[in-house]
Amino acid sequence: MTMINAGDNVDPLEVRKFDKLASRWWDPEGEFKPLHRLNPVRIGYVAERAVIAGSRCLDIGCGGGLLTEGLAQLGADVTGIDMAGGPLTVARMHQEISGLEGIRYLESSAEQLALDEAGLYDTVTCMEVLEHVPDPASLVAACRQLVKPGGNIFLSTINRNPKSFLMAIVGAEYVLGMLPRSTHEYARFIKPSELRRWSLQAGLHFRHLCGMTYSPFSGDFALSDDVDVNYLMHLSAPE
Ligand code: SAH
């Protein structure tokens, strides 16, 4: 069993980075443009593989609430948690603008929430967060604690290989300027085999692995078999 890092699985420098940019979160052409482009693709994936309407969802590392709102729009009761206060403020303001009910935002780590709300969620999402925490295996184990028996977990992150270095760092941060420089650190990228191993160690069942491939021509992402750069993993808890 993976050890849970109860209070300190947070990198303050990473959290500060997101705090500083918080006001830009909902600008579809701003610093978070890649998340805006990824959003419909990953929501489609989740909706295809889990029943979201009427379910209770947890979005870990929710930031300004792009995915959280997407899940609420599908009819879920959603809790969004993050360790950065700025993005959470923006998320709450945007929820007002969207007029969406059924969202609760909390400043908490997954490990902390797991102490109070273990086994409460039908679906847990943690997207584009694992590559920003010191101990991603502990975060996966916390996801496992938070989900109900038989519930679903959807994770997304960036693979670690020369192609992902070129695409996600050189391309996205330096050539296309889609992301601010130093958004990502290559050494923190995660291979699907590593994520799968941590998930199995946490007692989860592996369900599916899927790529999200960026097309520089359309500027959009699409689901694909190519997991070399951005990818999604679907896991489930035993009944
Ligand atoms: N999941 C959102 C935001 C991704 S950006 C989306 O895909 O749209 C990464 C987010 O993870 C930031 O909001 C950052 O503050 C948050 N984060 C970083 N470390 C964290 C931690 N240890 N626990 C919870 N959130 C964290």
Compact description:
This protein is 38% helix and 23% strand. It has 239 residues and is α/β, with parallel strands linked by helices. The chain has one domain: Rossmann fold (3-Layer(aba) Sandwich).
Question: Would you give an account of this structure?
Answer:
The protein is an alpha/beta fold and 239 residues long. The protein has a single domain (12-236), classed as Vaccinia Virus protein VP39 (Rossmann fold, 3-Layer(aba) Sandwich), CATH 3.40.50. Helix content is 38%, strand content 23%. It contains eight helices and eight strands. Strands 3-2-1-4-5-8-6-7 form an eight-stranded mixed sheet. The model has no long low-confidence stretch (mean pLDDT 95). It binds S-adenosyl-L-homocysteine.
Number of helices: 8
How many structural units, i.e. domains? 1
User: In CATH, what is the class?
Assistant: Alpha Beta
Helix content: 25-40%
Give the low-pLDDT segments: none
Q: What's the CATH architecture?
A: 3-Layer(aba) Sandwich
Q: What is the N-to-C succession of helices and strands?
A: HHEHEHEHEHEHHEEE
Rounded Rg:
16 Å
* Average pLDDT figure: 95
Please identify which CATH superfamily we are dealing with.
Vaccinia Virus protein VP39
Major sheet strand order: 3-2-1-4-5-8-6-7
Structural class: alpha/beta
